[in-house]
Design brief:
single chain; 354 residues; mainly alpha; 2 domains; 70% helix
Length: 354
């Protein structure tokens, strides 16, 4: 049975690789990834190595005895006492209270020296770019478009009836297409990784020079730990795409139309990821509902954690990985079962001309 499924997947790939769509979607993914890498590279050099810290505002206080200025670097490096020493005792209490509110708000995005190179120096640039691309939600939309198109084209051409009439099981056909989507998503990630490696090498050898080597291993890590973390992240990203692949295929089977399937998939994603969360945040009673949304759990699932500054200021917030895993699994299974049930029961019509 597995051999038969592999043969079906190979046949689906033979048809898909001759179409423009997967290559266009791959080009979009690559362009966005490269834009992040070179964008952070340009920002770093335009700000003379200060990176994202340039956009952070300093704390300033003018009192009766002295005027002081406190930066995020002062706060995180433990130089606050030194900065506020010229003030009177009463003024110090006022400043400490204000900084306790100012620090977490303004300095959580502060980048330490190694973090400034996160986006364009190996090996962190590989994961960094992919992570930011997926945070935009673009890859999930593109994979839904691919999934919907892969199945919807069969409705448009009217080939489903012919294929099924030759004895091919419906569940086998759906399984082959869904697995192929996962494999194509894996291929996209491989291409992005390879291009990020090439771009990071170029960023390290072309002027201006960052003053660091081409490869910077984070302090306390080894190559083994970096590669292990990288492999886990790629696996988590692929797992996070599964419900969106099922979602795209579900709407195509529901509407028997590529255009309608893609439209409903994108609208559902936008509504669930961008419209519903702010509405639920209006009331504290609805916060529990927000925790069950697919998009919020996928973000939690692929999260790389807070920056060093955010951890120092707010404390480490451990993401609920188990909940995210189970929610993604539940969404995937529900949509897969609904998709299979509809596809088994629906009559297959002739070509629709889409």
């Amino acid at each position: 049975m597995i051999a038969h499924l592999l043969t079906l997947i190979e046949g689906e790939w033979f048809k898909l690789r001759r179409r423009w769509l997967p290559w266009i979607l791959l080009a979009v993914m690559v362009l966005v990834s490269q834009a992040f890498l070179w964008g952070f590279y340009a920002v770093y050099h335009m700000t003379e190595g200060e990176g994202t810290n340039t956009f952070l505002s300093d704390y300033q206080y003018t009192g009766g005895t002295a005027t002081i200025q406190v930066t995020c670097s002062d706060l995180l490096d433990g130089r606050l006492r030194e900065r506020i020493h010229p003030l009177s005792k009463e003024e110090r209490l006022i400043v400490e209270g204000e900084i306790s509110e100012w620090g977490p708000k303004e300095c959580s995005d502060y980048a330490s020296e190694p973090e400034k190179f996160f986006m364009f120096v190996l090996p962190t640039s590989i994961v960094g770019n992919i992570y930011l691309v997926f945070l935009t939600g673009l890859p999930f939309i593109l994979i839904m478009i691919l999934s919907a198109s892969l199945l919807g084209s069969e409705y448009g051409w009217g080939t489903l009836r012919i294929v099924i009439s030759r004895g091919l099981g419906r569940w086998q056909l759906i399984s082959a297409k869904l697995v192929l989507c996962v494999l194509v998503a894996s291929g996209w990630l491989v291409v992005m990784v390879l291009l990020n490696i090439v771009s990071s090498i170029l960023a390290g050898i072309i002027p201006p020079d960052e003053g660091v080597s081409l490869i910077v291993i984070p302090e306390g890590d080894t190559w083994a730990s970096v590669l292990s973390a990288f492999g886990k992240f790629i696996g988590k990203v692929l797992y996070g795409t599964v419900p969106y692949i099922c979602l795209g295929a579900f709407f195509v089977v529901l509407t028997q139309s590529t255009a309608q399937g893609i439209s409903l998939s994108v609208i559902t994603y936008v509504a669930e990821a961008m419209v519903v969360p702010p509405l639920l945040a209006i009331s504290e009673k609805l916060e529990r509902i927000n925790e069950g949304l697919l998009s919020s759990n996928v973000r939690e699932w692929i999260s790389l954690g807070d920056s060093e500054a955010a951890v120092a200021l707010k404390g480490a917030e451990t993401p609920d990985i188990l909940q995210a895993f189970l929610v993604i699994l539940a969404y995937s299974l529900v949509m897969l079962v609904a998709l299979m049930w509809l596809f088994q029961r629906r009559d297959l019509s002739g070509p629709k001309g889409e």
